[in-house]
Every structure is written in structure tokens, then in C-alpha cells.
Amino acid sequence: MADYPQSLQAKLIRFGIYAVLVLMALWYLAPLYVMLSTSFKTLDEIRAGNLLSLPGTFSLDAWSAAWSSACTGVECGGMKRYFANSLTMMIPAVLISTLVGAFNGYILSMWRFKGSDMFFMALLIGTFLPFQVVILPMAQVLGWLELENSTGRLVLVHVIYGLQFTTLFFRNYYVTVPGELVKAARIDGAGFFRIFFKILLPISVPTIMVCLIWQTTQIWNDYLFGVVFSSGEGQPMTVALNNLVNTSTGVKQYNVDMAAAIIAALPTLLVYMVGGKYFVRGLTAGAVKG
Amino acid sequence: MTASRQGAPGFSISRLADVILPKLVLAPTVLACLVGFYVFIGWTAWLSFTESRLLPRYEWAGFVQYVELFGNERWWGAMQNLGIFGGLFILVSMALGLLMAVLLDQKIRFEGAIRTLYLYPMALSFIVTGTAWKWILNPGLGLEKMAHDWGFTGVTFDWIINPDFAIYTVVIAGVWQSSGFVMALFLAGLRGVDDSIIKAAQMDGASLPTIYTRIIIPSLRPVFLSAFMILAHIAVKSFDLVMALTGGGPGFATDLPSIFMYQHGFTRGQLGLGAASAMMMLFTACAVVMPLLYSELRRERRG
Fold it and tell me: Which pTM value belongs to this model?
């Protein structure tokens, strides 16, 4: 396109394109900027200034309040407990669902048996279901299991409803791996587990990354399961944040709300910055191939 | 599928293990999937045909809950809101996403950085997005005040507390979160378009806009379909965004089926009604997604 000398019109068009792109970038960035600047302001500054004004003195009071003393309802211990809840729930749930998904994908591609393709379809359909249609029975079953611990309940639920995605990621990758690789290994006497750990797992690093990142963001960001299956001090971060923001007692502390929101956003933002490439791949693979 | 078929000369424990192990390892997932999805859907369906209130009861009661649901004004309000929100959310996200993808496809400098910026909201929880936009749209201290500070003192921007406009604030926040993702989908699609077709069209003297509207964009049909399905899916199950942004209010102005379901099923002791509304959500999701999925599967088989 740029092989011939650019006319004035072409230059204008080019300028227009960049202008639109920059405007769009600002629109995506603005809420983050507003959250950050608000979190460093005092309440007086918030009332005196406006959304875009910079904080006069970078005050960290809102951050420390959000972390350790903000009130959600009657409890006033800040977000730290809930942040820890989300972490202790997320880590085992992500690891278990990824490992099981890897095995499932391996079986559904390399060890197919009668009915396995049908099962894969049944699993895929699950990716389209609104979870509202399963949460009532799930609540009942968790009650029967007498699983009182909120974190334990959420790990179980997140593993069950994450498997469809993790299985999909690995299955779709393993079907692209030549079957001869596995056949040769079998002739050499390698068994089910040996082939998986020695041959397939070492070449699965990108898929493992996609899967870990997808599950981390899904589970950390979940609200529905959190609000339905956990209670009180066992609630995850998202639920606590919503409680904090929508607590109607006392003076509304917008700076604390924003600091808490950023704390809730930090882990997944970090994951996005470190593994953005895999994040995008997961989004498109998980969603498109469904 | 018995072990005896493998019981030729090379029969051994390890060969037997190769037959049994895959099924054994897959079994927990099969169980989780069958129970977690299919048994539970049946269970919810069953509950929707009972008079369960605070506690589940399992005596058949016919269609009472559905009769009550269809006579419930709040439910229809929620469905209408879903229509407005879903329609606009999908339309605007797709339009913005396509526009950004086409612009980004013009050999843009810093494309990677710009893409990263457009997509980061997708990594956030809808609760965080809702919290941020709730603050930005705050009528006393948010955008309205900013406009006043800048001298536009006549401006009122109180959509978030205005029952007639609150639903559009949900659209704004939803689009902010998801449009970058649609951009990524379209951009991936654009990069997959065969260059030789475009070159040939250029040789024939077609202008760039014509090439886009006549050749490139129509060839993105599958991307449109998947973007539509994903966005529709997000819309139908949207819950957290509204809970954080407006809590369904003011009044029931931004109520959605998911909120209706949650409140009746879990906080108001109306299990049966909650189950019936959950079933209606399932049908809505199926009605939107299945025809598209079906047509796509058929195309794939033929192609």
C-alpha cells in the first residue's frame, strides 16, 4: 500500500486511523486511571476535584484501609482475609483441573474408545450452559456431603465446571500431535502413564500455560459460585469486594472502594501482563472451538 | 471392547492396563460431567415442576411455577432488559471490535502495545468493572461533576440512577469489558484472509474500502458467528456486572433473569420459581446458540 508516494488524502486518512486508535486506547485506559487516582486521594480531595484530577498528596490511607480495616457489613478486617481465601481456593482448583484436563485430553485423542467421542460432545455442550441451571442441585448436594468449608466447596465446584475447558484445550492440542509418536512408544513397551509423562507432557508447555492462565482468570474472577456456595468469612475476593462497595452504612469511602477493586484486579492483571499471549490464545481457543 | 481382543500372543498385564487405565482415568470426569451437567439439569427441571419454596419438595405439581413465572411482571421486565442489554451489547461490541480490528490491520506502528491495551479489561472480574463504572457514573462526583468543572454546568448525566436509562450503563460497562476481545477475534480472522485474493482485487482497481466491504468482511462469516455466540452467551448469563454496577436497580430497572433466578432460588425461599426461571434461561441460551452451532456444524461437514 505504501509503495507509491502518499498523497495528502492518504496522509489524512492515516492520521485519522491513528487518532481513532488512540482515542479508543484512552477509553480503555480511563477507568483504570480513574480507579488509581481515586485510590490515592483523600475523601476531601475527591469531593473538591473531579474524576480526572490528579491526587494532590499521594495518600496510601485508602490502600491500607482496603487491605486491613475496611468494613464489609459487620466485619471490619479489610480485604486481606478474602484475598487469601481466593488464593487458597484458586491454586488447588487450577492445578487439579489442569492436570485432570491434560489426562482427559490425552485419552480423548490418543486412547479413544467406543463412546469417547460422544462423551467429548457431551462435555462440549456443557461449555454453553448457563450455570444458573445447575446451582440449585449443586447447593443441595454440597449440603448432603456436609462440606462446610467454603474453600473446599469452591474448589470442588470450580474443578467440576472447569474440566470442560481444560479438557478441550488439551484434546484440541493432542489431536494435532502425530499418532505415530504414541504408536512407536507403545511398540517399545511404554505404557499409558509413561507415554503421557515422557512424550506428551514435555511438548505441552504452551497448552499448559493457556490452561493455567484461563483457569486462573476464570476462578479468580468468578462471582456466581462464590456468592452461592460460600458464606461469611469464607467468601472469595469478588464477593467481598461487592459487599464492601454496596455496604450502605457510614460515609461512602470511594477511595477505599477503588483501592479494594484494584487489589481484586491485581492478580489477573499480573497474569495478563506476564502471559498475555497465552491469555488471548485461551480466549479464542476456549470460546471459538466450543 | 474387552481385554480378550488384545489377548493375542503379546498378552500381558501392561496390555490389560492399557485397555483399562484410560477408562479408569477418564471415569471421574465422566461422572462429574454426567452428574454436574445432565443429572443436575434434570433435577432443576424436576424442581421447577414442584411447589418447593424454602426447602426442596419433590411432589409433582405440574406447571404452577411456570404459570406464576409467566404471570410475573418482574420476570418479563428482566427478560426485556436482557433483550435491550443483550442486543445493544452484542451489536456495539461487534461494531467496535470490527472497526478496531480493521484499523489495526493497516500496518499500524505499536500494534502489539495497542492490542494489549484494548484487551486488558477482559482479564478483570466483572465485579471490578462494575465497581469502577459505578464510581465513574456516580451522578454527584463522577462524569457529571467533571462536565460541570469544565464549564458545562447544564449537563446532567444521571443514567445510573435513572430507571429509564440505567440499563444503558450496563451496556457501556459490558462493551468496555468485552469489545477488545471481539477485536482480537476479528483481527485473527483478518490475518487469516488469503492475501492473493486481496492482491487480485487491487489489480482490478478495487479501492481499499470496497475490498473490505465486498471481499474481506464477508469472508469473516465464521468469526461473526463465533463472536455472536460468545457475546450472546456472556449476555444471557450476565450477573456479576449488574450486581456490582446497579444491583438490579433502581427498582428493577436493570434486573436480569440471572438476578431473578439468584434471588428467588437463594435469598427469597422460592426454589420452585427459581428453578423455573433457570430452565427458561437454559432455553434462552439454547434458542440463541443452537441454531448457529447447528448451521456451522453442517457447513463444516459439507466443506
Answer: 0.89
